[in-house]
């Protein structure tokens, strides 16, 4: 199954859309976190459910603080959603603490969930504000990664998770192998501007084959929520049943369009924007 472009099939008005569960933190500025997930998923024609993990106090200049949601409330949201509404895919973003990660993994296993799970191992904001306790890295590696269909770290997160400094394609491959060894079915190592400033070269690995995704890289200061948007679009494509490499290819096209449509907001970094979809 190959996707034609940057859109997914949209259900007719009144028909129940496919559902994706976003397990993520709230961004009061509306650009990243669960707000980014809901914006993209809605504009892709899916229904987003949420399990809120933390409430951040932030604007476009940075994250001032955050308040964690008690882990039993995070688990309760997941259970309430999947036992009634049902979801075809899920994704995780900011998870804040080890207790929350353990509760998500425990709930996932107890409910015997088998839908695709995209784990975006969010560790810090683009300004460098921490969004995950250092002590939680081990829970991420040992509890959540083995349940993941695909993990999507950027280069900073790769360094924290597997201790590899990705500087070229050999180290990118080594990182993909080390991440895959932690248990996810697939590992996507996002390359950032690894090869050149104007290319975005991501590497996907399933334990057997490497898949390279080399696409034009748009540089804009307004790229808040880019990683969340990529992972949300992947989850949307997986909910539709597309294979992981197709979901990655699709999500890269989607986030590129969202970067093209990014807008300034506040005094800092504006968000990537799926609103372009309203004009097409
Ligand atoms: O973009 C990563 C991210 C995810 N979730 C929340 C965030 C951020 C970045 O700031 O605030 C809630």
TrEMBL record:
EC number: 2.7.1.49, 2.7.4.7
Gene Ontology molecular functions: ATP binding; hydroxymethylpyrimidine kinase activity; phosphomethylpyrimidine kinase activity
Reaction catalysis annotation: 4-amino-5-hydroxymethyl-2-methylpyrimidine + ATP = 4-amino-2-methyl-5-(phosphooxymethyl)pyrimidine + ADP + H(+); 4-amino-2-methyl-5-(phosphooxymethyl)pyrimidine + ATP = 4-amino-2-methyl-5-(diphosphooxymethyl)pyrimidine + ADP
Keywords assigned by UniProt, alphabetized: ATP-binding, Kinase, Nucleotide-binding, Thiamine biosynthesis, Transferase
InterPro entries named in the record: HMP/HMP-P_kinase_dom, PM/HMP-P_kinase-1, Ribokinase-like
GO biological process, one term: thiamine biosynthetic process
Entry GO CC: cytosol
Pfam families hit by this protein: Phos_pyr_kin (PF08543)
Pathways per UniProt: Cofactor biosynthesis; thiamine diphosphate biosynthesis; 4-amino-2-methyl-5-diphosphomethylpyrimidine from 5-amino-1-(5-phospho-D-ribosyl)imidazole: step 3/3; Cofactor biosynthesis; thiamine diphosphate biosynthesis; 4-amino-2-methyl-5-diphosphomethylpyrimidine from 5-amino-1-(5-phospho-D-ribosyl)imidazole: step 2/3
Pyridoxamine kinase/Phosphomethylpyrimidine kinase domain segment(s): 27-272
EC class name: transferase
Key word Protein transport present: no
Function: Catalyzes the phosphorylation of hydroxymethylpyrimidine phosphate (HMP-P) to HMP-PP, and of HMP to HMP-P.
UniProt protein name: Hydroxymethylpyrimidine/phosphomethylpyrimidine kinase
Originating species: Mycobacterium asiaticum
